[in-house]
Amino acid sequence: MPLKDYDKPAEIALIKACRMGGSLRISDVRPTEGTARNTIRAGLIRELLLGTEDCRPPTEGLYIRGAWIVEALNLMGEAVPVPLGLRNCALQRDVNLQNCTLPGLYLTDTQLPAMLAQGLRCSSSLHLTDKFEAAGPVDLNGAKIVGQLVCTDGKFLAEDVALRCNSITVGADMFLSDGFEARGEVKLIRAEIAGNLAMRGAKLAKGIVASGMRVRAGFNWRDVQGNGIAVDLMDAQVGTLYDPPGSWDPVKELHLSSFRYDRIESDMDVQERLNWLAKHDATVSRFTPAPYVQLANVLRRQGFAGEAAQVLIRREDKQRAAEWDAAVTGMDGTFQRELIASAHQYRPLLSLPFKWMFGYGHQPARVLPWIAIIWAVTFCFAEQTHRRGQFAPTSAVVLNSPEWLRSFPSTPLPADSPLWRAQLDAWVKTEPGRDYESFSAWLYALDLFIPLDALGQEKNWAPSASRGAWGEWGHRLRWLVQMAGWVITAMGAAVVTGLIGRRD
Question: What is the pTM of this model?
Answer without folding.
Answer: 0.73
